[in-house]
Amino acid sequence: MNQLKRIMDLGVLVEPEAAARLKSFNDSDLKTIMSKVEAQRPLVLSEEVIKEYLKTSSMRIIKQFTQKTSFSVQDYVNFVNERFSFLQGILVTKMEAANITSINKCGRGNVTVIGMVKSVEKKDTGFVAELEDTTGAIRAVVPEELGKRIDHDDVIAVTGNINNSILFADNVIWPDVPLREPKKSSIKTKISFMTDHSFEHNPKIDSDYLIVSNCENIEHLQQDLPFLKIIAITNSDIKTKAIKIRSPCLMDIDGVVILVAIGHDPLKTLRKRYIIEGKTGFLIDPIPDIVFTDRPLDSNYKGISVISPQKTVDISTRETKAITV
């Protein structure tokens, strides 16, 4: 068998089971195996190595941030309305047993309102937030522990008692992601994430995909690891063979949803379900299974893996390990 001899001539040991398997492959599969053996020169060609070589993996971009060259007042109004409608829908589902009231119909007594935060300021005994929906606005007095988590432009549900046209809050609910079982891929796929690195001397990367941000000399990596799929986070038109994306970005890799969010607090992002980028924003939908962040944070948040740079994750097990640089 010519392929078997070619492999052995490269100094690669071939296990008997693997040699038998080679006889069953078509020309296309044999070509794939040969090209990867020649590029990687494994010490031993086993059935497991062949399986890895023939593994099919898929990646698609669900959506990513798009920078507008021009931005009108109407564009801003449309985005605000879209964001409010999306987050209001999530909160209505969360608060299905509550007595949700539009702001213009608030009188006295216990109510729940959903509104966008127009302003929030610290007071002696807590915070005062001005909430707005499509019908009107209302001021809410919020306890300090809840109020310090509220930011301008948040869409929140506030429950409390109204007195003299002021809502005295008992509780604040954010859209937040639901608690879920960690989702795993049926395919053994590894994804590495690196930032601020120069690939003049390549680290040991045992992955199918590499997501990079603010990295140099990517072309060296492409030469040394030709089967590694590189995804470059960039806002410029750099010339590279890598797949280019803009952050924030939601993508699907082998059935697992990945959120790339550079420059943003990942836990706040998941709780708020949106990211403001420039004059517009990015809604977190669908819910990600993994978040890659440039913050020094590794966490599991409600079944979502938050992964910091210089890490590799196996999405079939959700196990992570550090990359030696």
Task: Walk me through the structure.
The chain has 325 residues and is of the alpha/beta class. The protein folds into three domains: 2-53, no CATH class; 59-69 and 180-322, Purple Acid Phosphatase, chain A, domain 2, CATH 3.60.21; 95-173, Beta Barrel (OB fold (Dihydrolipoamide Acetyltransferase, E2P)), CATH 2.40.50. Helices cover 23% and strands 35% of the residues. It has eight helices and 21 strands. The protein has helices at 2-9, 16-22, 27-40, 47-53, 73-94, 144-147, 218-224, 266-272; strands spanning 13-14, 44-45, 59-64, 109-123, 126-132, 137-143, 155-163, 166-173, 190-195, 209-213, 229-233, 243-245, 249-253, 256-261, 274-277, 280-283, 290-293, 299-301, 304-307, 311-314, 319-322. Strand 13 (249-253) and strand 14 form a beta hairpin. The longest helix has 22 residues, at 73-94. The mean pLDDT is 90.
What is the fold's blueprint, element by element?
Elements: H1 2-9, E1 13-14, H2 16-22, H3 27-40, E2 44-45, H4 47-53, E3 59-64, H5 73-94, E4 109-123, E5 126-132, E6 137-143, H6 144-147, E7 155-163, E8 166-173, E9 190-195, E10 209-213, H7 218-224, E11 229-233, E12 243-245, E13 249-253, E14 256-261, H8 266-272, E15 274-277, E16 280-283, E17 290-293, E18 299-301, E19 304-307, E20 311-314, E21 319-322
Parallel strand pairs: 1-2, 6-8, 9-10, 10-11, 11-12, 14-17, 17-19
Antiparallel strand pairs: 3-13, 4-5, 4-7, 5-6, 7-8, 9-20, 13-14, 15-16, 18-19, 20-21
